[in-house]
Amino acid sequence: MSKMIYADNAATTQVSQRVLQKMLPWLSQHYGNPSSIYGIGREGRAALEEARAQVAQGLGAEPSEIFFTACGTEADNWALKGIARALRPKGKTHIITTAIEHHAILHTCAALEKEGFSVTYLPVDQYGLVSVSDVERALTPATALVSVMFANNEIGTVEPIPEIGALCRRKGVLFHTDAVQAVGHLPIDVQAMNIDLLSLSAHKFHGPKGVGALYIRKGIPFPATFLDGGGQERGRRAGTENVAGIVGLGEALTEALEDLPEKTSRVTAMRDRLIAELTKLPKVRLNGHPTQRLPGNCNLSFEGVEGESLLLLLDSRDICASSGSACTSGSLDPSHVLLAIGLPHEVAHGSLRLTLGDMNTPDEVEEILQAVPQVVERLRAMSPVWDTMKDR
Ligand code: PLP
Question: What is the enclosing helix (H) or strand (E) of 162?
Fold first, then answer.
């Protein structure tokens, strides 16, 4: 049997050996509670602070500005709800975001709307890009926060974050970015990019699942607590810390950023080969920006094909891919991201997301290039509509 090919790195990634080895002692002999004052407790505390310093270093932040969370979703919830509730007494009841955010942002915004906040969902262009002047036009004296994702999880488009950051700083409005897909894959500097809050998640860059972080720029208005309870995370997020997970997060970020340019060019070259070859097939389009996209992301729509069938046939050949984000696959609704970039429903349904990482190899890419055209052809041959659409 051929080896499994994992091409769904935007859904999650494999924990690296280096990260695993660094985590293991914290799941075995070093089991102390970091809040305890004796030796094995203090060791845990020191490990947390080392990881905090690693994350801070990776973002150009200070360790005191990093708060650990249970996932990227929690960091997103905390950023939006925290700022909204802190600024509401000042009459700031408006949030600006985009139509293509992850549900961790969109559903949080919907929850805030129920609490009386108003939310502007900015449209994107055909490539999934948000326009900086649209952000500027949407600002009102009541705007509390602008939240724009760093890079989209489905189509890979990288947003103009430094420009939006500069605009928000000039206008005195706080700026959050959901950088869950970007951290560990693109260089990020929260100072240079004028980012006030940033969410990240370890499992997207070879760290463990179930641990994330929120960067909160020091000095910004923020309520004292998100989770009430003990005094962990300087009283802002109670709960005994996931020491092994946090240690894994810190190490994963350090590892991901080592030799980043070299890894980026290797992954980008594999992605570009996928795009160049697969877009030669008839009636296919590339979703997302042609160049301003995540190094590993290749998202294509094939007319006359159902994404779910495509995934099943690829799975039968041991190729793991996705047709939308992992959270929405399983639902038959077309992806809100593909609809936002203007795809008709039937084209959005035939989409395939292949996301490569630095653990993929050029040989795997060649195998994908063998499999996808065969699978697409087979599905089109069985399709009742393909005959009528192929010559259009
Ligand atoms: N934001 C984006 C852009 C994501 O891609 C994801 C996960 O797919 C999340 C947030 C949620 O992160 P987590 O799985 O850690 O909750």
Answer: helix 161-171
Which residues, judged by CB distance below 6 Å to any ligand atom, belong to the binding site of ligand 1?
71-73, 76, 102, 104, 149, 153, 178, 180-181, 201, 212, 325
Low-confidence ranges of the chain (pLDDT < 50): 1, 325-329
pTM, 2 dp: 0.96
97 phi, psi to nearest 5 deg = -145, -165
**pLDDT of 328:** 46
Ligand 1 atom at shortest distance from the alpha carbon of 152: 3
Protein residue with least CA distance to atom 6, ligand 1: 180
User: Could you give the CA distance from residue 347 to residue 351 in angstroms, rounded to a whole number?
Assistant: 7
Count the Cβ atoms, other than its own, within 10 Å of residue 333: 11
Instruction: Starting at the earlier edge strand, list the strands of the sheet with 66-69.
Output: 66-69, 212-216, 197-201, 174-178, 143-147, 94-98, 118-122
**Cα of 102 from ligand 1 centre, angstroms:** 7
Give the Å distance between the CA of 147 and the centre of ligand 1.
Answer: 15
> Judging by DSSP bridges, how do beta strands 66-69 and 212-216 pair with one another?
antiparallel
Residues belonging to the chain: 392
How many whole angstroms separate alpha carbon 255 and alpha carbon 263?
11
Give the Å distance between the CA of 219 and the centre of ligand 1.
26
Which ligand 1 atom minimizes the distance to the CA of 202?
15
Could you tell me the sign of the dihedral formed by the alpha carbons of 378, 382, 387, 392, in that order? negative
- To which H or E segment does residue 119 belong? strand 118-122
What pLDDT, in 10s, does the model give residues 165-223?
999 999 999 999 999 999 999 999 999 999 999 999 999 999 999 999 999 999 998 87
- Alpha carbon distance 173, 166 (integer Å): 10
Active site residues: 327
- Residue 223: its pLDDT value, please? 77
Protein residue whose Cα sits closest to atom 4 of ligand 1: 180
